[in-house]
Amino acid sequence: MSMLNSVLEKLTDEVQANRKSENPVSPLFLNRWSPRAYSSQKVSDSDLNTILESAHWAPSSFNDQPWRFIVAKTEEQLQVFHSFLGDFNKMWATKAPVLVLVASDKLRENGDPNGAHAFDAGTAWGFMALQAKMLGLSTHAIGGFDRDKARELLNIPDHIELHAVISIGYQGDKSDLPAGLQEREIPSGRKPLNKVVFEGKFNS
């Protein structure tokens, strides 16, 4: 409970130094960022199941629940996932104790196209990231991976779209990262809100 209180009640020092919201928001949203350094501490099955359960309660169009989560947590499973990660991401993501491939079914149960499948899967990933942070864990979404190879190795049918590999673990020391990544290991900022919010109509 103390970790949850910390995440919900106050900003970490590194977040305070790098992130300023224009309007009041829960510290949970600012404390959640995407580090690349992971410690060797394992993620418990209980915590992992809580993270996946939270993602499964995301809203979905017609309650189709199109998201699919393929989990790698054993050494053998992780080696398979490592084999289809891009070279850049292999430099750091191989240290994460859990990897989850987020995918979604492009078809509804009756065979019709589901136009909201990717939108819904993205929402589920957001829930996953927030729940992980509430448990004191870090996550990072990885788009750089070989989708064809992942599909083949994981026996994924064509009607399932692959979106991202999510690394999950406890944040480690950035000094363990390659030199080029250490300087990037800080919470990122955001564009001014008026650059992304438009009232009444879109302004280019």
Question: Can you describe what's shown?
Answer:
This protein is of the alpha+beta class and 204 residues long. It folds into two domains: 31 residues, no CATH class; 142 residues, NADH Oxidase. Helices cover 38% and strands 14% of the residues. The protein has nine helices and four strands, in the order ααααβααβαβαβα. Strands 1-2-4-3 form a four-stranded antiparallel sheet. Helix 4 packs antiparallel against helix 7. The longest helix is centred in the middle third of the chain and has 18 residues. The radius of gyration is 18 Å and the shape is globular. It starts with a helix and ends in a 22-residue tail after the last helix. The mean pLDDT is 96. Keywords: Oxidoreductase. This is Nitroreductase. InterPro entries: Nitroreductase (IPR029479), Nitroreductase-like (IPR000415). Belongs to the nitroreductase family.
Break the fold down into its secondary structure elements and pairings:
Blueprint: H1 2-9, H2 13-18, H3 27-31, H4 45-56, E1 67-72, H5 75-84, H6 87-93, E2 98-105, H7 117-134, E3 138-142, H8 147-153, E4 160-169, H9 179-182
Antiparallel strand pairs: 1-2, 2-4, 3-4
What characteristics describe this protein?
204 residues, alpha+beta, NADH Oxidase, 4-stranded antiparallel sheet, Nitroreductase, oxidoreductase, Nitroreductase-like
Largest sheet: 4 strands, antiparallel
Our count of helices gives 9
Q: What is the CA-based Rg, rounded?
A: 18 Å
The portion of residues assigned to helices is 25-40%
Strand content: 5-15%
- Determine the CATH topology of the largest domain: NADH Oxidase
Order of helices and strands: HHHHEHHEHEHEH
Family: Belongs to the nitroreductase family.
Domain Nitroreductase: 31-78, 89-170
Keywords: Oxidoreductase
Organism: Paenibacillus sediminis
